[in-house]
Amino acid sequence: MNPKTTSEEDALLWGARALKEIAGARARHEARLLLGGVLNKEPSVLGFGDEAPLTVRQWQTYQAHVQRRQQYEPISRILGRREFWSLSFEISPDTLDPRPDSEILIETVLSFIKANPQGPWGETDAPCVLDFGTGSGCLLVALLTELSNFWGVGIDKSIDALQIAKKNAARHNLETRASFVASNWGESLMGFVDVLISNPPYIPAREVDALEWDVRDYDPRSALTPGATGLEAYEILARQSTSLLKAGGICALEIGFGQEEDVRALFENAGLRFISQHKDLQGHVRCLFFQR
User: Fold this and answer.
1) pLDDT score of 190
2) Do 271 and 163 share a structural domain?
3) Are residues 183 and 91 in the same domain?
4) Do 120 and 200 fall within a single domain?
5) Among 72, 98, 123, which residue terminates a domain?
6) Which residues contact 64 (CB under 8 A, 6 or more apart)?
7) How many CB atoms within 10 Å of residue 18?
8) With helix as H, strand as E and coil as C, how does the chain read?
9) Residue 78: inside a domain, yes or no?
10) Cα within 13 Å of Cα(49), Cβ side
11) Are 71 and 98 in contact (CB under 8 A)?
């Protein structure tokens, strides 16, 4: 194929053939996603015949993307971005790849705030969200796009992850409402917040090697496991939550499969009141919700 005359449709046909073995019926769809990423176009508008041919660099980049996908690398990792809460987020090897199940945390917080306008967030002009283990910043940014009077702070121990989170806040015009701090959880923080949200590492160390390959091989290990039991991060957050949350403040946590009883006990023993639990798309309890 001559790269100087390769049309979008030619590229899609080539990509679909190349990806047939690993993607099956989704091969053309995956080819569209990869080509859309290279051309910075919506995949749905590709290949209608009225576009300019790919440049040599675009064709070479697309070929490289297809080859990476043939090695089973996730498309989100190849393109360096992922959609979450209908927003586009840059990701990197230093950040967790956001997944749809985590959107239940956003839904839970928004629903409670809407139903309870008399909460502490109604007593100030600038209520605050604190996001522990912010990674790409997807939870914080998604909440701030919905809560226009809130500001927020994203915490992560990875400087490189925080740089990505800052870019994502800027992408969604939140530079003045989102700040990011390098810290080992809340040990360097002072003051009170209205909302605490976190998707901390929660996989027991012994189970990491058994995870799906796209998680095990591409998500940073530090974002997956906190240690032997998988509860280590929750133990820290439970202790710190009472000193960081305002009276009446709320806490939404993502948890792993079968962890609801242990995590609930940790936070209730720390002084928070259990409000509710919420299931993910597979029907597993994924979010625990507390109030101080």
Assistant:
1) 78
2) yes
3) yes
4) yes
5) 72
6) none
7) 18
8) CCHHHCCHHHHHHHHHHHHHHHHHHHHHHHHHHHHHHHHCCCHHHCCCCCCCCCCHHHHHHHHHHHHHHHCCCCHHHHHCEEEECCEEEECCCCCCCCCHHHHHHHHHHHHHHHHCCCCHHHCCCCCEEEEECCCCCHHHHHHHHHCCCCEEEEEECCHHHHHHHHHHHHHCCCCCCEEEEECCCCCCCCCCEEEEEECCCCCEHHHHHHCCHHHHCCCCHHHHCCECCCCHHHHHHHHHHHHHEEEEEEEEEECCCCCHHHHHHHHHHCCCEEEEEEECCCCCEEEEEEEC
9) no
10) 0
11) no
Residue 94, phi then psi, degrees to nearest 5:
-90, -5
- Which of 131, 268, 105, 254 shows the shortest CA–CA distance to 194? 131
The residue type found at 123 is: E
pLDDT tops 80 at residue 56: yes
The residue among 94, 138, 132, 160 whose CA lies nearest residue 245 is 132
Both 205 and 274 in a single domain? Answer: yes
pLDDT of 3 higher than 60: no
| pLDDT score recorded for residue 188 | 77
Inter-axis angle of helices 27-39 and 8-23, to 10 degrees?
Answer: 130
Q: Is residue 89 part of a domain?
A: yes
Residue-number span of the structural domain to which 223 is assigned: 84-291
Residue with tokens 């639990």: 277
Q: What are phi and psi of 180, to 5 degrees?
A: -135, 135
Spatial CB neighbours of 91, under 8 Å, sequence gap ≥ 6: 76, 77, 80, 81, 82, 97, 98, 136, 164
Number of independent structural domains in the chain? 2
Q: Are residues 190 and 247 in the same domain?
A: yes
pLDDT (tens digit per residue) in 146-203: 999 999 999 999 999 999 999 999 999 999 999 999 998 988 787 899 999 999 999 9
